[in-house]
From TrEMBL:
GO molecular function: ATP binding; ATP hydrolysis activity; branched-chain amino acid transmembrane transporter activity
Gene3D superfamilies tied to this protein: P-loop containing nucleotide triphosphate hydrolases
Source species: Calidithermus roseus
Protein name in the entry: High-affinity branched-chain amino acid transport ATP-binding protein LivF
Keyword Transport recorded: yes
Length: 261
């Protein structure tokens, strides 16, 4: 199990666009933490910073610190972060579209011995029978839900201790969202994973995580237990449109009235 600590992080893109403005977050070993917030709040930026991927997006850390199990990874490369056991599953379902399901899994297993790779691949197929059925098909032809399962399978082949998952529910039917959350919960329990779940679908996140952070315009607007978040009228109205009068239109009106940062 591993802990992750982000302290007062400031991230800038292209030297001028301030995407994170002093964000702090912690995840204890084995804890599941949700990162919620509207479009452009900075959620993916935080994922990229944690995973050592910022420079690929012309971004860099201006200030602050990220530690994994006490080790400073603020400016570490993606390879170094991965070697320390942190695996990101990025948004947009970045599978190798022209490789088969099996080839995708094999590519993800490059650090493992052949025997270990075989054992975990078997585990992945047992967990996701649909992937086994479609193992010889190009990953680009899989449905969104199947691609998400493939990404989870690929992540398992990296033997992670911390899993950072960016918007796994995006574009999925509600029943598949439930399925993805269920599988993430199982993996977390069985493998003792520390989990950071980025979601715009707050309801889905609430079903899985113990604590949530709500980002808004590059800052943490709310931090607390899932229970407190769910009983906080502001968080519920602002992010879920689940206020007294309810409805999306009302939520939008409320949102216009309210300033968080
Ligand atoms: N590569 C980039 N270059 C310049 N600006 C960027 C880049 N990536 C993100 N940004 C900006 O940084 C801010 C935070 O974006 P980010 O993608 O982290 O938000 P997000 O909360 O993940 O949003 P979404 O839910 O839409 O993915 C936004 O203002 C965005 O326009």
């Amino acid at each position: 199990m591993a802990s992750l600590n982000v302290e007062n992080l400031k991230v800038v893109y292209r030297g001028v666009i301030l995407a994170l403005n002093g964000v702090s977050l912690r995840a204890e070993p084995g804890e599941a933490v949700g990162l919620l917030g509207p479009n452009g709040a900075g959620k993916s930026t935080l994922v990229r910073a944690i995973a050592g991927l910022l420079h690929q997006y012309e971004g860099r850390v201006l200030d602050g610190k990220i530690t994994l199990n006490g080790q400073d990874i603020t400016h570490a490369s993606a390879l170094k972060v991965a070697a320390l056991g942190l695996t990101p599953i990025l948004e947009g379902r970045p599978v190798f579209r022209y490789l088969t399901v099996l080839e995708n899994l094999t590519a993800a297993a490059h650090k493992l011995s052949p025997a270990r790779a075989r054992a975990i691949t078997e585990e992945v197929f047992a967990r996701f029978p649909r992937l086994y059925e479609r193992r010889r098909e190009q990953a680009g032809y899989l449905s969104g839900g199947e691609q998400q399962m493939l990404l989870l399978g690929m992540a398992l082949l990296t033997e992670p201790r911390v899993l950072v998952v960016d918007e796994p529910s995006l574009g999925l039917a509600p029943i598949l969202v439930e399925e993805v959350m269920r599988v993430l919960g199982e993996l977390r329990r069985e493998k003792g994973l520390t989990l950071i779940l980025v979601e715009q679908n707050a309801r889905a996140a609430f079903s899985l995580v113990e604590r949530v952070y709500v980002l808004e315009q590059g800052r943490v607007a709310f931090e607390g237990s899932t229970q407190v978040a769910q009983s906080d009228a502001d968080v519920m109205e602002f992010y879920l449109g689940a206020g007294a009068s309810g409805g999306f239109a009302e939520a939008k009106r409320y949102r216009r009235r309210k300033r968080w940062v």
